[in-house]
Design brief:
Elements: H1 31-40, H2 43-49, H3 55-76, E1 85-87, E2 93-95, H4 97-102
Antiparallel strand pairs: 1-2
Helix pairs in contact: 1-3
Length: 121
Amino acid sequence: MPLPQWVRAPVEPDPPGNAIHIYQFPLSISAELEERFLATLSPDETAKLTQAHLPALRHRQIAARGYLRCILARYLRLPPDEIEFSYGVHGKPALSAKLAIKLNPALHFNMTHVEIGRAHV
């Protein structure tokens, strides 16, 4: 089955309303981009990185959280480092109540890590 055709994300996307927006991004990033993303992470996100025993896993986590913050920043019109998360009982992130109510109560997100071209059994 052919892969879907992806289009470049808008710099200032419209609020999602009832739409679903899907983003795809690489988890292999340059050292420069990793440093930029690392600077946007909150202290709790940075602390969680110490749990990643393999450097490759740590790099992927920085990339995933960095991209997530950059994408949400576009919708919320905030700098990525000002986004605050709350966490559910299983650690699933959501916008903090303060941000969700103040900026965009309709904005919900989910994130998954999938390696295209690899079979998952």
